Amino acid sequence: MPDSPDSLSSREGLSAQKAWELELLADFANEQTRNRAFTRLMERYRKALYWHIRRMVLDHDETDDLLQNTFIRCYQSLDRFEARSGLYTWLYRIATNLCLSHLNQRKRRRILSLSDDTVRMEAELKRVTPQERMGSAEYLLEKALLRLPPKQRLVFQMRYYDEMPYEQMSEILGTSAGGLKASYHLAFKKVESILKSR
Q1: pTM of the entire structure?
Q2: CATH, range 130-198
Q3: Which of 81, 105, 129, 142 has a CA positioned 20 to 30 A from the CA of residue 114?
Q4: Which residues of the chain are in CATH 1.10.10.10 domains?
């Protein structure tokens, strides 16, 4: 049976992405083109990684610090990248792990319960949200997401905002696709309940 046009274009897109990654890795391996290659990588993924991190920590300055640390770790390890997953998946994993560590450290430093941390994050969300957006559905969703445990919030955000396939999420988070589907479903039900109660 011949391939459908959609599967062909999808495969061509994957092939183009893989070719771009292989070219970038070759350029990074060459001392003369290393910096230019890394600049291309940062330009390609900076915006997506920024918003992934920002949705987790909310604060712009913390996001910038975590994004910078993500790229520093990438630069230090890119020559050892084994290409078992795509570069984007690998970068996402680095950013996600840094985010979760940061949130855990912040919680330990303040010795707060989850509800106290939620109150602080809600205050931060209110501070960074323009007044005209306060009653919007997007703002209410973001506020409801803060009531979820960090890992469950992360799964919801990756699936809902980034429209990431469960298989890719599984590579990033080291959790089975089935477990992630269950986590997303639970998060969805909790968010739905929170929004209905308002």
Answers
A1: 0.72
A2: 1.10.10.10
A3: 129
A4: 130-198
| Average pLDDT across the chain, whole number | 83
User: How many percent of the chain have pLDDT more than 90?
Assistant: 46
**Position 119, amino acid:** V
Q: Which CATH class is domain 14-111?
A: mainly alpha
Residues in the chain: 198
Q: Start-end ranges of CATH 1.10.1740.10 in the chain? A: 14-111
DSSP structure class, residue 84: S
For residues 28-67, one letter each, b for 16 or more C-beta atoms within 10 angstroms of the residue's C-beta and e for the rest, the string is beeeeeeeebbebbbebbeeebbebbbbbbbbeebbeebb
Distance CA 45, CA 71 (A): 10
Count the neighbouring beta carbons within 10 Å of the beta carbon of residue 27: 17
Q: Which residues contact 4 (CB under 8 A, 6 or more apart)?
A: none
